[in-house]
Design brief:
Layout lengths: L15 E11 L5 E12 L2 H6 L4 H18 L3 H6 L1 H16 L4 E13 L2
Antiparallel strand pairs: 1-2, 2-3
Length: about 120
C-alpha cells in the first residue's frame, strides 16, 4: 500500500496588480500607438486559480495585453487620446469576463501612458 502525498499550495487572496508595458497597436484610422495598462484583481476561488490555468498571473497579463491591443485597434486616434475612462471601462469588462472562469475577480483597470508613434 502506498501512502498518499499531498502538497499544500498557498494562494494570496489579497489585491494584486498585473501590468503590461508598451503594447503596440494601430488605431481604426491607421495611427500607430503604444500604451501601458494595469489591472487590480484578487483570487476568489483558489482551486480554480490553481487548476484551471497554469499561471493565473501570467494569463492575466496576456489577457490584459490582448484586450488593450484590441481596444486600441477598435478606437480612432481621437478616442484614444481623449477618452481614457471609456477605454478603461471597456477593457475592464473584457478582462473580467475572461478571468472569471479562473476564479479571479478583476476590480479595476487603468490605461496609463499612451504614446503616438510617427
Amino acid at each position: 500500500m502506498f501512502p498518499l502525498f499531498h502538497s499544500v499550495r498557498l494562494v494570496d487572496t489579497g489585491d494584486q496588480t498585473a501590468h503590461c508595458q508598451s503594447v503596440l497597436a494601430v488605431t481604426e484610422d491607421n495611427l500607430a500607438v503604444s500604451a501601458d495598462a494595469a489591472i487590480t484583481y484578487h483570487v476568489v476561488d483558489p482551486e480554480a486559480a490553481l487548476y484551471k490555468v497554469a499561471s493565473y498571473s501570467e494569463a492575466l497579463t496576456t489577457l490584459l495585453e490582448s484586450a488593450l491591443q484590441t481596444g486600441l485597434g477598435q478606437a480612432t486616434a481621437a478616442e484614444v487620446c481623449g477618452a481614457h475612462s471609456t477605454l478603461d471601462a471597456s477593457r475592464l469588462t473584457h478582462v473580467a469576463s475572461g478571468a472569471g472562469g479562473w476564479g479571479i475577480a478583476v476590480t479595476s483597470a487603468r490605461i496609463g501612458k499612451i504614446d503616438v508613434r510617427a
